[in-house]
Amino acid sequence: MEGVLFAVPSPNQLLIVPLETMADLSAIRVLVTSAHLAKQSATSPLTDQLFWLDDGEVHHIRVDHFDDDVQVIPPPAFMEVMERMSTMSLISAAGEA
Questions:
Q1: How confident is the model over 52-72, as pLDDT tens digits?
Q2: DSSP assigned state of 94
Q3: How confident is the model at residue 2, as a pLDDT?
Q4: What is the spatial distance between Cα 19 and Cα 29, in angstroms, rounded to a whole number?
C-alpha cells in the first residue's frame, strides 16, 4: 500500500481512500468534490484540502477551487508514488497479456 488519501472537512467527518492500485487514484476527484461540499455544508467547517499519509508522515495536497475549475497540486513525493504505481500497473498488465 502507498499510504492513504484523506480529508477532514469538519470535526465529525473523515474521508479516507487507501492507495493500493492506480484505480484508487481515480477516487481523488470524488474525494475533492466530497470534501468541498461537506465543508460548505458543515456547521463547524475545517478544510476542503486533501492530505496524504505515507509511512507515518502527513503531506498536504493543495486543492485550489475556482468558479468553474479545481486544481489539485500534489507534493513531489506523491508524484513519485503515482509514477511508481503507474509502472507497476503496466508491468502487471504486461504479465497478464
A1: 999 999 999 999 999 899 999
A2: H
A3: 85
A4: 14
The radius of gyration of the chain's CA atoms, rounded to the nearest angstrom, is: 15
Distance CA 84, CA 26 (A): 16
Residues contacting residue 28 through CB under 8 Å, at least 6 positions apart: 5, 17, 50, 72
10 burial via Cβ count (<10 Å: 0-12, 13-18, 19+):
middle
C-alpha cell, 97: 497479456
pLDDT, residue 15, reads 97
Nearest residue to 63 (alpha-carbon basis) of 96, 97, 11, 28:
28
Q: The pTM is what?
A: 0.83
Is the four-CA dihedral 5, 78, 66, 27 of positive or negative sign?
A: negative
Closest by CA to 17, choosing from 61, 80, 70, is 61
Alpha-carbon distance values, 13 to 4, 7, 61, 85 (Å): 16, 8, 18, 28
